[in-house]
Write a structure and sequence with these properties.
226 residues, mainly beta, twelve-stranded antiparallel β-sheet, three-stranded antiparallel β-sheet, 1 helix, AIM24, AIM24_sf, AIM24 family protein, Trp_RNA-bd_attenuator-like_dom
């Protein structure tokens, strides 16, 4: 019986975080190197790993999540192998080397607890969507795992004058040093996004990347308010 299943066995550990297939994250846990992960994302583990839902450090920062976009997090600590997933979504692993990433909270799966993180308003969008858009910014030295509803595309903005336009409901993450602004598109409202009311896009320019998923979020992130 084991022979037909041999191809699905865990692979040797080569990094702190890595993919096991397209839809699962494997984390090599060590004492003193804690992890923050989405509540409910644990699907299996080996060794001795403890979980603390909504730890005090998370509660303090989550107070800024005034828009309800926050993802409930748990602290994972101990030694062993931890496997995480989010309802079959694709998993994207990033190793931050002193840089940062701005992530849609619904696409955040896990990240090293030692990274600097917080919730902040995306500048330049309030006039398009009332209170604007809030994202989670993560920076420092460490690992981050994102989810994408389908195989994502990573667009390199290239640092030129040309702008990259993204439907905000399909946006996963972007380099925080990029310039961001909103754009209305009246004529294209039946072709871009969901077509409910005015169509909005987010325009990115500068040096950095934008991660886009091939499936829109369940609720419009930008919309006319008031």
């Amino acid at each position: 019986m084991n022979q037909p299943l041999a191809g699905y066995a865990p692979a040797p550990v080569t990094a702190r975080m890595e993919n096991h297939g397209d839809h699962m994250l494997k984390v090599a846990m060590q004492t003193g190197n804690d992890l923050l992960a989405r509540v409910g994302s644990m699907i299996a583990y080996e060794g001795f790993i403890q979980y603390e839902p909504n730890p005090s450090a998370v509660r303090q920062i989550a107070r800024d999540w005034a828009t309800g976009e926050g993802a409930p997090l748990m602290k994972c600590s101990g030694d062993g192998l931890l496997y995480l997933a989010d309802y079959g979504a694709n998993v994207v692993v990033l190793n931050l080397n002193g840089d940062g990433i701005s992530v849609n909270a619904t696409n955040l799966l896990a990240f090293d607890a030692g990274l600097t993180w917080g919730v902040e308003r995306v500048k330049g969008l309030a006039k398009f969507a009332g209170q604007g858009l809030w994202n989670t910014k993560i920076s420092g030295q460490g690992w981050v795992a994102l989810t994408s509803r389908g195989m994502p595309i990573v667009v390199d903005c290239g640092g030129g004058d040309d702008e990259t336009y993204v439907d905000p409901d399909a946006l996963v993450a972007w380099s925080p040093n990029l310039k961001v602004k909103g754009k209305r598109s009246f004529r294209a409202q039946s072709l871009i996004g969901r077509g409910s009311g005015e169509a909005y896009q987010m325009a990115f320019s500068g040096q950095g990347i934008v991660v886009v998923q091939p499936s829109e979020d369940s609720t419009d992130r930008l919309r006319v308010r008031g």
